[in-house]
Design goal:
This protein has one domain: Glycerol-3-phosphate (1)-acyltransferase, CATH 3.40.1130. The longest helix has 54 residues. The N terminus is likely disordered. 49% of the residues lie in helices and 15% in strands. Helix 2 crosses helix 4. The protein starts with a helix and ends in a 9-residue tail after the last helix. The radius of gyration is 23 Å and the shape is globular. The chain is α/β, with parallel strands linked by helices and 291 residues long.
């Protein structure tokens, strides 16, 4: 009798533990999935940085920069695959990109914008000196040959614009985000004009490119979900990256638009206006993001 009672109590205790175990199991599964993804991404980054450091020993000048942006192109393709970002590229003309050099302008929401673009088209990226000080992102930017600018000090603007102009004249595509900062993606901010005239000085046209995050884990990119991708304001990098690693699938659309002809007599106001209008007219946030 006592044995029977003992067995019954053990069964009851087992049954009582089931809901707790059932609740913990998904959390444990998500933890391992996120940790595994983080480990794979970290491994690719370490490998990329190591290879880049070694290659710089054997290349200088243009050859070094060209190798850096090609390596970045490859690691970004692998990184997006690991993170399960599905990117639809529209309007990209590889032949045109080989024949001509462009100052490329785009809308900006997140550090992921750079990975999305770099995976589609090798280019030199322009970012802020502050970004160069962010752990991980700064190392990746430097290894990829990025140009660091200081937008807060006008006295440095001429030097930064001169560096950008010279890079274009050397035949490298350069990508800038003229909003001057990342946003939540619900609108496109006015374009800052200071660096756009580098296209005029270098004798190249401007190529507008639109980045649109379509869905996040099956939900549309809108006001309720945008911060899972968009990194803006005073958000801290590490918590945002951890949140991004938890995502299961992100769909993105990258659209290359028609080049904008830049003539010697066009004003910088007109350059900024036409560049932004091209992007705004083709950037379509979901209806719920506009409420």
């Amino acid at each position: 009798m006592s044995r029977a009672v003992g067995i019954s109590l053990e069964k009851l205790r087992f049954i009582a533990r089931l809901p707790r175990a059932t609740a913990i199991a998904p959390l444990r599964s998500e933890f391992y999935r996120t940790a595994h993804k983080a480990a794979r991404v970290s491994s690719k980054i370490v490998t990329h940085l190591t290879k880049s450091s070694v290659k710089t020993l054997f290349a200088r000048g243009d050859a070094q920069l060209r190798q850096a942006i090609l390596d970045t192109h490859q690691v970004c393709r692998e990184g997006l695959e690991t993170l399960n970002f599905e990117v639809e590229v529209v309007g990209h003309d590889p032949e045109l990109m080989r024949e001509k050099t462009f100052l490329i302008v785009g809308n900006h929401m997140s550090y992921m914008d750079v990975l999305v673009f770099a995976a589609a088209q090798p280019a030199v990226f322009v970012t802020s000196v502050d970004m160069g000080q962010v752990p991980l992102l700064g190392h990746l930017a430097r290894s990829g040959g990025s140009l660091f600018v200081e937008r807060r000090h006008r006295e440095r603007m001429d030097n930064d614009r001169g560096t950008l102009t010279e890079t274009l004249k050397r035949g490298f595509h350069v990508l800038i985000y003229p909003e001057g900062t990342s946003t939540n993606g619900l609108e496109v901010k006015p374009f800052k004009k200071g660096l756009l005239t580098a296209a005029q000085a270098a004798g190249v046209d401007i190529l507008p490119v639109v980045t649109s995050y379509v869905s996040i884990d099956g939900q549309p990119f809108d006001a309720s979900t945008c911060d899972r991708i968009a990194w803006h304001g005073d958000m801290k990098f590490a918590p945002h990256l951890l949140q991004l690693l938890r995502l299961r699938k992100v769909k993105v659309r990258l659209e290359f638009l028609a080049p904008i002809k830049i003539t010697p007599d066009i004003s910088r106001d007109e350059i900024a206006l036409r560049s932004r209008e091209a992007i705004v007219s083709n950037y379509k946030p979901t209806p719920s993001s506009q409420t």
